[in-house]
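Hi D.,

Good news: the full-assembly prediction came through. Inputs first.
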Amino acid sequence: MNNQNIHPTIAALEKRMIEFRRHLHQHPELGFEEVETARYIIDQIKAVDLEIRHPVAKTGIVAHMHNGEGPCIALRADMDALPIQETAEVPYKSVNDGVMHACGHDGHVAILLGTLLALDRHRDAWQGTIKFIFQPAEEGEGGAEKMIAEGVLKNPDVAAIFGLHIWNYQPVGIIGVQSGPVLASADSFEISVRGTGGHGAVPQDTVDAVYVASQLVVSLQSIVSRNLDPLESGVVTIGQITGGDNFNIIADEVHLKGTTRAYREQDRELIKDRLQTICDGVATTYGATIDLHYRDSYPSTVNDPDMTEVVTRAAKRVAGDGVGKPFLSMGGEDMSFFLREVPGCFFFLGSAKPEHEHAVVSHHNSRFDFNERALAAGASVFMEIVHEMLPAKS
Ligand SMILES: [Zn+2]
Ligand SMILES: [Zn+2]
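Then the structure:
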């Protein structure tokens, strides 16, 4: 494990950050329901000289720390938990039935709180305005988009934004930073196949919706294998099929649900276009009616090259040679909406517990837990980013 260079003020706050994290972990709330979470956050920062906007996007908080003339930058943490029953036996186990911080957003909030308290103690070391964004509903409902619509990036205008994700796929001491796309677009779709049902022994009088849906499942996999540039990344997944009534009845209706992923916007468009073309073609071929409902959800998360340089320099001061390319996935993340509006960088903070380093406990798993040593590392990187972006008073 790499030695980390933890900022002394952060080191002094580490115990409190762990306390914050454990309290939040024990009291998780779902997206747009983070009422107690927001109350808790405000309690921790109410003694600090801040301009607080709340509620923003139902349950979100934007805390402005003004400190003289200078640009405005934003640091963002998401606050929501997941509808999962926690099975990890930890002293800070969730007390809210069926709700769990299984993605590490409790850690993100704790890191941002620690950073805020530390930057308040170091007002001599930077100049400008910092917006601390506590965002609701990252997991699927797009809290970021709603916050932007309510003006969080305005008044004053945000010049750059930074965020991080606790990352159990790598150990503490490793920080993943990369320019360009780092997480995928994550759209969803529903397909209805309508045929003509009938007797299982008389197929000639029917249009078999199960058969047509099967053709569709197979054909849709040709998008990634035959249409997408093999050097680029994309996924088409059908996650659910429902239809049919019994073994001897030909189904007249089948429903499919799925998701698509891509790093590049042009590949996202290509996948979407081909989905429609294949649905139309299969419908014509087999005489069925096929309706596709495609829902644009999160775009891909794309880091600005200059801001990636800033984070790389900042992270190296904390983790030295531990800074490298992140372990990438086709997961989605609504930080992408912020990064479409202003330049910024989203980076990955290694957080695997030593006993999990060779057997990853994945995010969104009911046994998810992370190494709390990551908290001080994350806050130290945020501190260094601020020092890079907002130099000391001259
Ligand atoms: Zn998640
Ligand atoms: Zn997450």
